[in-house]
Amino acid sequence: NNLMAAQMTNAHRRFLQVLMSNGITEGSEARKLHQHCCETDKVYYAHDKLDDFISTINSHLQPLFMQIRKGTSEDDGRAHYAVVNLAETEVTKMASDYTEIELELFRKTMDLIILSENGFASSTDILNLADQLKTKKMKKKEAEQVLKVFVEDKWLSE
């Protein structure tokens, strides 16, 4: 059986655009956005159908190797949503807002956080990664600045 993806409406497109421009969106904000998009475009809205709504968008993003993912914050246990890139190609590397060395520092930072017992990594440990990067070494002062940008861009929280 071939299953066809549900029709992507303007409500879906608007939701996706806002999510992409926000970076990471807290769960209650995503629910409000879902309602707003449905009401604005006069499409059926059900408060408990956010996951279905997102699944429709994801089925259309699949060929682009992208997906809306739901994650839980270690701080408060609340859900957050973000659009993620599932493929790392030369094109996606070029399309990034960050340099290759900054992305490497980010990946290594994520590894530190994930492997820690408490879901945190100290800034000292992260700064010590700066001179272990494969792309090229990064001065601690430089790494500090990059981490500040990641926090400002809401990819990391202090």
From TrEMBL:
It comes from Spizella passerina. Belongs to the NSE1 family. Keywords: Chromosome, DNA damage, DNA recombination, DNA repair, Metal-binding, Nucleus, Telomere, Transferase, Ubl conjugation pathway, Zinc, Zinc-finger. Its EC number is 2.3.2.27. Its main location: nucleus. It is found in: Chromosome, Telomere; Nucleus. It catalyses: S-ubiquitinyl-[E2 ubiquitin-conjugating enzyme]-L-cysteine + [acceptor protein]-L-lysine = [E2 ubiquitin-conjugating enzyme]-L-cysteine + N(6)-ubiquitinyl-[acceptor protein]-L-lysine. GO terms for biological process: double-strand break repair via homologous recombination. GO terms for molecular function: ubiquitin protein ligase activity; zinc ion binding. The keyword Zinc-finger applies. RING-type zinc finger-containing E3 ubiquitin ligase that assembles with melanoma antigen protein (MAGE) to catalyze the direct transfer of ubiquitin from E2 ubiquitin-conjugating enzyme to a specific substrate. Involved in maintenance of genome integrity, DNA damage response and DNA repair. GO terms for cellular component: chromosome, telomeric region; nucleus; Smc5-Smc6 complex. The gene is Nsmce1. The keyword Translocase does not apply. Pfam families: SMC_Nse1 (PF07574). Component of the Smc5-Smc6 complex. It comes from the Eukaryota. InterPro entries: Nse1 (IPR011513), WH-like_DNA-bd_sf (IPR036388). This is Non-structural maintenance of chromosomes element 1 homolog.
